[in-house]
Amino acid sequence: MRVRFDARKNRTSDAAFASCNAAVGQVHANGVGFIADTARAYASVYIGRRAAICGNARTQDHARIEDNAVVIGNAVVYMSAVISGNGVVSEDAAFIGSATVTERAVVTGKEVSGNTIHLRLCPSDQVRPGICP
Question: How far is residue 12's CA from residue 68's CA, in Å, rounded to a whole number?
Fold first, then answer.
């Protein structure tokens, strides 16, 4: 059933709603996050209640889209990749394997794959040379 997404009614944050530009879509059964009708998500994908899959993005396998994360554009997230915090995967990015995007990190137009890749953005006042706490 297609519905115009209502952030309050579907228990998803206004941020996720705004990220999808009031797209028509549905609540994903696994995690109750929003998925636009133009996007695709396997039933095995977890989409948290404040997360969103928008545009022509695809999520599959056992990927997890958590917190306020957004997958948008033509991005692809699959295998056991995790997008969390305020992480964004957009444009034509492909995020594969057990890689993680978290906090305010943004991945655009690149393929990221591997067994233990973790991307996050550190506040500048907390960064020591070569170390992000």
Answer: 9
Q: Which of 102, 105, 53, 101 is CA-nearest to residue 74?
A: 53
pTM of the model: 0.76
Q: What's the CATH code, domain 3-119?
A: 2.160.10
- Could you state, in order of their start, the residue ranges of all structural domains in the chain? 3-119
**Joined tokens for residue 22:** 């009031």
Q: In this predicted model, what pLDDT tens digit does every residue of 13-33 receive, in sequence order?
A: 555 556 677 788 888 999 988
